[in-house]
Amino acid sequence: MSSQTTVDKVAAGIGNYADDTAGASKIVNGFARKIFPDHWSFMLGEITLYSFVILLLTGTFLTFFYEPSAAETTYTGIYAPLAGQTVSEAYASSLRLSFDIRGGLLMRQVHHWAALVFVAATIVHMARVFFTGAFRKPRELNWVIGGVLALLAVFEGFTGYSLPDDLLSGTGIRIADAIILAVPVVGSYISFFLFGGEFPGQDFIPRFFTIHILLLPAVMLALIVVHLFFVVIHKHTQYPGPGRTEDNVVGFPLFPVYAAKAGGFFFIVFGVIALIAALFSINPIWAYGAYDPSPVTAGSQPDWYMGWLDGAVRLMPGWTEISAFGYTLSLNIFIPTTVIILFVMGALVAYPYLEQIATGDKREHHLLDRPRNAPTRTGLGVMAVTFYVLLWISGGNDIIAHIMQLSINDITRFLRVALFVLPAIAFVVTKRICLGLQRKDREKALHGRETGRIVRLPHGEFIEVHAPLSDLERWTLVQHEVQRPMEIEDRVDAGNPDTLYGRFQRRLSKFYFEDRVEPVTPAEVEAAHSHGELGSDEEHLAVGDKENAAIGTSQTLHG
Amino acid sequence: MSEIERAGDAHGQGPGTTLARGQGGVAEKFENPGLPEHRHRMGDTDPKAARRAERQVAILLVLSMIGSVLIVVSIIGVKYDGSFNQISLSTKAIGLSMFLSLFALGVGAVHWAKTLMPDDERIDYRHRQRGTTAERDQAVAILKEGTDESGIARRPLIRNTLIGAGVLFPIPAVFFFRDTGPLPGDDLSTTMWREGMYLTKDPEGGRIRASDLGLGSVVHVMPEGIEDQEEILNAKAKAAVLLMRLEPELLNPGSGREDWAVDGIVAYSKICTHMGCPVALYEQQTHHLLCPCHQSTFDVTRECKVIFGPAKRALPQLPIRVDAEGYLQAQSGFHEAVGPSFWERG
After folding, report:
1. What is the ipTM, given to two decimal places?
2. Which domain holds residue A463?
3. B295 contacts in A (CB within 8 Å)?
4. Cβ of A429 under 8 Å from any chain B Cβ?
5. pTM for the whole thing?
6. Which of A14, A217, A377, B30 is the most exposed place for a label (fewest CB within 10 A)?
7. What is the distance between the alpha carbons of residues A104 and B91, in angstroms, rounded to a whole number?
């Protein structure tokens, strides 16, 4: 008993001090019991956040041993094949970090794997947000912040990848320099200011180091804080279901449930990345050797998140480079790098606003869409994913050619066409699949679910018995709101149809909502049921009743 | 339960899902049935199950402690003499201990939350981001009042000069970056190759006698004296050359280039005209050069013109000759810029 009171006393003391100095009671009252909804897909953002924290922790460790300098030194470490070679301090210290520091190699590998997981989790998290419509009002700005973070994550990854100054990363820098040189008018100047003169020079390593460990992480950390702040003030979205509405959030309290779940999940993510790093080597810089601009390794591949840009560069035909009036415009590089990044970022940032124009919907949305209930959006998303994956595949065209014994020229030619054809097909097919799934939902809501029981009727006909849905089961299938094109709806809130904007808005609305499947209404269910119950006897048992309804249903369906 | 029912009824309908009665008393839309009845877990009703869960959590936390101890043991205990086996062993030992320590702690916490902490759904109510009309009016009034007090509208002189100062002050910041690098000048268009400079093997060094090159051979070449350059890598990034010997009749030199080869020996820049990777793969049979970065392919029999891939320009040719003793040397530098394109290249 006495220990209990001691604990209580200490807790009271700490609490009192925290409240006196920081107003802790208000913070606890406001936040501790905040409700968060539960769903596995909400953990994708958590993985992103946690891998960022892991990157900060392991990265700090690495800076204690890494030497950000291109100065020449003679390698004298324990890796025999490189003994006596002239290498940069950066490369030598990366090797020392890997071989002479206990746990150094592990930390480097945790850092590198965490970076790969970080970018991957960012992108999958964004896909989840996109396909469920979580970017809709009031979260558009947070979507934009997320997009900027994704771009910064890629830059952060690239600058870090460049620091060991090995042959592979040097080749990456060489390509980055070519991307900069291809920027019209100012390219050579930007390149010379970034590299402190000609490529590669001595300056890029300390500069990339500062960008990698200070500038970008600071900006990202600030944006992450804003991102999370928005999550708190908006409250988390939730999937539709019984009891879930636009006005509530159903779930579990931050303290103690999410403190344990989310806190525990951080350790799970850290543990799994440590496991991967313990067992799987990543970026073995000692095998590549120090950077030298004249040799290169066949099958050079960047980290996975740069693959799509590398693929775009590989697909672009060379004739798009234009020389005229004494100047060279390298569209063969500029388009698949700078332009495509700007285009993707532009599309990403503009999308929520574009969809808002199509729907003319200014209301807040906190219930997520089931992807099938937004067929055009889902189609566009899959189209974008297809485009991305094709570029990514192009980035490995040499590896594919090698493994599958195909001509690299044929693969490249195929991909050049496929890049435009397959995304279009993916859009149409996905949209049709979504509409099909919605029809299936309608059938299920109307006629109940298939039981797999086949019954033979007295006159010989075979039918499958359908079991009716409960109100709870049906709700998920019928809860959504359907959008109709503005043309057929008398929308007073839409733009004036005589203006250019109004016409654009109506065309966009037609593109989005012309093909649609409306959710089942109670009247339809009633009609379906009364049809099925024709001739049914009041004396029937409940089971018989159900069966009868289902029979009627399947007769309407198949008869 | 009362709270939950309230959620279904009073708050059940968001905008657009308003319940409207259609004809004949049938609703136009379904009504939100409210939260399903809560299902209790084993541990909520069966004290035995709860104790079992408690033990499982404790076991996981003990495993985590063991993992933490093992990390220390692996760092101190695994002999670290720098041999590859020991590095590998140490990395695995520390990493797997870390996994145990972190993962078991994480799973323990999550298991605790899932089995023993209350799992009945609770409800928070949302508020619209947009303020009420009164709040918005008040905010506008405050801003108007503040603007009035500042007098910015009444004093255009201050307003305009403020805009001017605000626009101008960040611009000088850009100029602080002036000395981050020199201006490009002609650095991108020139290499260290000059007339009479000898070709040497890369990386072993040593001049190359034309007669030593067999048919079909290929040699990586740097100009003699490159090791004495101040910025070796910068020089190498532009001066790298590939030397190949083909049947002389296979070569189709253009006008002005007839004497740039020596007896079927040709020298081309090794730096890809696309993005500057070394064009290091030579296919002897087809006489094609392939860049491993983006697969631009150059045909050596046609002055290294691009026959496939994203590059536009042919690899620049280095005119070569032999001296009196038969060693290969440059007739001149490159006649055009090597490497990736840039705006001023022309």
Report:
1. 0.89
2. 439-507+515-558
3. 314, 397-398, 408, 412
4. no
5. 0.91
6. A14
7. 8
